[in-house]
Structures are given as structure tokens and as C-alpha cells.
Amino acid sequence: MKIQDHKIELKGMTLEKLREYLESIGEKKFRGNQIFNWMYNNLAMEFDEMQNIPKPLRDKLQSETTLKTLELKTSKSSNNTGTVKYVFSTYDDRNIETVLIPDGERNTLCISTQVGCPLDCKFCATGLMGYKRNLSTGEIVDQYFLSAKANPKTSITNIVYMGMGEPLLNFERTLESLDIFTHELNKVVGRNRITVSTSGIPQRIIDLAESGYRVKMALSLHSCFEDIRSRIMPINNKYSLSDNLDALKQYVRISKTKITFEYTMLKGINDRKEDAEALAKICKDIPSKVNVIPFNSIAHMSPGGISAELEPTSKSGILDFVEELRNRNVRVMVRETQGDDIAAACGQLAVN
Predict the structure, then answer these.
(1) Are residues 164 and 301 in the same domain?
(2) How far is CA 331 from the centre of its chain?
(3) Coil, helix or strand for 8?
(4) Cross-strand partners of 102
(5) pLDDT for 44-73, tens place per residue?
(6) What pLDDT is recorded for position 344?
(7) First and final CA of the chain: distance in angstroms?
(8) pLDDT digits (tens, 9 = 90+) for 95-123
(9) In whole numbers, what is the pLDDT of the chain averaged over residues?
């Protein structure tokens, strides 16, 4: 899909920016409210759908702006869990993946913020894909709106920024997307059903807390020891776990929310008794819960080095680890693998 370079990307504008743009072309501010409603509540994909917008304005918008940021390229459903993986193409012919995870009355959409990822986490397929570019605000939010359009009978109840990329390295656009999703004029999901996941950028964690959006925060933890974490998550060499934990304490204090620690179980690396003890200590210091995640194969990326050596902790090993945590009064959720048969499970998103 190609978008002409001179056209303004209307999808992805916050209400404030829409109003400013409409005023700049000689229109009244309230037109911004109307277009906001059409794009984000009525899922309008064409200007002619905007029935209360005068035709001369619709023609002008058609000429100078675009509502298209992504195009649905393919979708694939898991036969095991009903998980759906979407591949969207961008205007410059890049591909990104978005995953819809059904779980009873809860339907979670896992969205991406970058094409690829620069962090090179050793257990993550996206890191092996490498980094291409940041997504625009429109490309971030359109994953929700296009997924909702493709699933009219499925109500998306939760949004997690846990797809491809590091949201806090695309910070301004992540913030703008949160502004759109959580705006009082929008009917997307409540802010308490939105989670931003990060591998740990301390200052940006604090900045997000001070932004006032008060969404949930998840840290990709995966080890409580600096040396081990640096081995499997090179970003830890730049932003230490210690600094990230200090930032999370500020996030809790400012936002009045609890933290989720994401913990992928890796055989012989982070599944020992001393790992459980260290994790319990962190959870005692920071109001939180732990999502224990089975390691999902990244063989489809033909990994080398340490990535090729990683093995999943056995099911019995996971149960022992979880029991150790719960005996220490840690709130633990064991995440079931969803969509591994279509390479849509946690850590598997990548486009070759």
C-alpha cells in the first residue's frame, strides 16, 4: 500500500491536533470533534462515511489527507486457542504483527509500536528481526481500529503494548496513542484496561507516570540479577535493573497503580530457588504481581548464539517456581501459551 507523500495522516491525530488542523484550513473547531468521532468511534475508513461533514470539506480532506495508515495483509487463527494474528503492511511496504487473544469475556489486543525492535532480547523473535523504524501514531492506533473492524462480533476489552518493539523508545507517539485511546470522547477501552510493557527505560517510566494517563505498567523482568539480565537482555547494560526498580517505585507512587512483572521461564537461567527468592524480595518492595510465561520457541527465526541455546523450563519446574513464590505471598499468574501454532505467542512476533 502506498500513500502519497504530500498527504497528511489524519488517523492518529489527537483531538487537539485535529482541532488545530481544521482551524488552519479555515474550519470551525467542532469539526475536529466530529471527525474524531467518525475515525475512532465509528471506525470510518472513507471520508464519504462522515455524513455530518459538508461535502466540500470531505472533498478537501480527501484531496489533502488520508485515513489509511495500514492495510490488512493477512490474518491467521490458531486452531488450538482461537488466537488471531494479523499482519499489517505500512505505506513503505513494511510489515508488522498484531495479535488478538480471546480468554472468556476478556479479549486482549497486543499491539506493536515499532517495525522490529532494537533491544535484541535473546528470547524474543522480534529482537532477532532487528529494528527498521518507529511506527507513527496512526499506525499504532489503527491496529486497534482495523482489528475491531475485522472482528465486529468480538469486543476488544483490553489493549497491551506488548507486540513488536519497545513502546518507551517511541515515546511521543506512544503517548499520543494513549491520548486517543483514553480520551473521554472515545469508546475504546478504559485506561485501567491498557497496559504498557517495557524492557526498562527508567526516565521514560517516570515521564509516563507524570503524563497523567495512569495506565498499567509492565516490566519485562526475566531475571532479578544484573549479570544474568544483561546476558539475556543487553539493554540492562545501559539501563540497570536497579535504576528501573527505582523508576517503578516512582511510577507506583505517582500513578497509584500496581506493576506487573513479566517473567519468561528459561531452564537453568532464571528458574532456580534463588531466583524465586530474589523475585519475592522485589515484589515485597513494589506493589505488584508476576506473570509467569513459558518460553515459546523462536526456531522460526533460525537463532544463533545464546538464543539458540535457550530451553524452556519444564511444566513441573514452572509449578515448583510458582509455588515458591506463592509461599512467599507473591501474587502470581501463570500465562498459558496462546497461538504458538501460528507463531503468535509471547516472544514469537517477527516478520522475516
Answers:
(1) yes
(2) 23
(3) strand
(4) 107
(5) 999 999 999 999 999 999 999 999 999 999
(6) 45
(7) 18
(8) 999 999 988 889 999 999 999 999 999 99
(9) 92
Query: Are residues 135 and 52 located together in one domain of the fold?
Result: no
- State how far the Cα of 159 lies from the Cα of 101, in Å rounded to an integer: 10
Q: In terms of Cα–Cα distance, which of 189, 180, 182, 179 is closest to 156?
A: 189
Residues assigned a catalytic role:
97, 346
Same domain, 298 and 264: yes
| Sign of the four-CA dihedral 143, 145, 146, 151 | positive
Residues 34 and 150 in one domain: no
Does the residue 283 lie in any domain?
yes
Say if residues 117 and 164 touch (Cβ distance below 8 Å): yes
**Tally of CA atoms within 13 A in the half-sphere of 308 that contains its CB:** 5
Q: Say if 351 falls within a structural domain.
A: no
Enclosing domain of residue 251? 70-342
Report yes or no on 2 lying in a domain. Answer: no
Q: What is the pTM of this model?
A: 0.93
352 falls within a domain: no
Quickly count: other Cβ atoms within 10 Å of residue 352's Cβ: 9
pLDDT at position 104, please? Answer: 84
Confidence at residue 350, expressed as pLDDT on a 0 to 100 scale: 54
Look at residues 124, 132, 97 and name the one whose alpha carbon lies nearest to residue 111.
97
In angstroms, the CA 219 to CA 245 distance is 9
CB 212 within 8 A of CB 201: no
* 127, 13: one domain: no
Which pLDDT score, from 0 to 100, does residue 2 have? Answer: 39
For residue 273, give the DSSP letter: H
227 and 265 part of one domain: yes
